[in-house]
Amino acid sequence: MKPVSFVIPNYKKNPLIKHLPKIIKACPKNSEIIVVDDCSPDDTTAYLKKHFSQVKVISNKVNQRFAQTCNIGIKAAKNNLVFLLNSDVVPKLNFLKPLIKHFNDPKMFAVNCLEIQTVNGKREISGKNKCQFKRGLFIHQAVKITNLNQPTKNCWASGGSMMLDKKKFLQVGGFDLLYKPAYWEDIDLSWIAREKYGYKIMFEPRSQVFHNHETTNITIFGKRKIKIMSARNQLLFIWKNIRGFKLLQHFIWLPYHLIFTNIRSQGVFLISLLQAIKIQIKK
């Protein structure tokens, strides 16, 4: 089996140290495990070096957020196959083999895993997705998974649990810092890889991970700010990547969204639009 580098962007000791033993157990012995600590306010770096000596630790001197933290870790990886996972994601045993086979295809860029999660006491699975251009906006959404044995094409590979080709990742420019602090950077990356370079993005349901949903973003930003960031980055994605008649449609639909979508979102759309315009002017 080809060697793999595991890159885990991290902020704060928990939930990382709770899941790290299971992650190490799921990784083959020839794997490289890299934790990029994004300037945690606790003793994460010291703790990892003391208790997990087999893990390579990279410490950001200042907080960089998700995209740049991932870029740093992927660039530092010694293997060309890199598995990127969140600190609240734990792979199942024997999850690698189905992923690695896809990279025999020279056009393969990234492969997304099936995520198993518990929501309100119910087991849910996700990872398959699609995108469409609707009412002047680029919409992404989950797709129901009906076959657990059949890989399919995906619109994007989620940064929380995907394997990628490092050389191709660097070729397309990595995660764009335009979307800092978070959201839409993995969709943008997948779009560029597929639309501009002709690479493939896949979903592999036989490779499974547990997603424990212990994200730090809600505690740091709050739900409303997350909605604003996501809507703002949706606009930035469109202005960066969409051209021709669809871009014209986008601007035609903007007055509608400024009235009705803004009312439904309780002002989120207008704030997002103003923030996106400000970022665009500064570029």
Classify the beta-strand content into a percent band: 25-35%
Percent in helix? 40-55%
The unreliable regions are none
Termini Cα gap? 44 Å
Q: Sketch the major β-sheet.
A: 10 strands, mixed
Helix count equals 10
Structure description:
With 283 residues, the protein is of the alpha/beta class. It is 41% helix and 26% strand. The chain contains ten helices and twelve strands. 37% of the residues are buried.
Question: What is the compact description of this entry?
Answer:
It contains 10 helices and 12 strands. With 283 residues, it is of the alpha/beta class. The strands form 2 sheets. Strands 1, 2, 3, 4, 5, 6, 7, 10, 11 and 12 form a 10-stranded mixed β-sheet that branches. Strands 8-9 form a two-stranded antiparallel ribbon.
Fill in the keyword field for this structure.
283 residues, two-stranded antiparallel ribbon, 41% helix, globular, alpha/beta, 10-stranded mixed sheet
Topology overview:
Elements lengths: L3 E7 L5 H11 L5 E6 L6 H8 L4 E4 L5 H12 L4 E5 L3 E3 L4 H7 L5 E12 L2 E5 L2 E6 L2 E6 L9 E2 L7 E5 H7 L12 H11 L4 E12 L5 H5 L1 H19 L3 H20 L3 H15 L1
Parallel strand pairs: 1-2, 1-4, 2-3, 6-12
Antiparallel strand pairs: 4-11, 5-12, 6-7, 6-11, 8-9, 10-12
Helix pairs in contact: 8-10
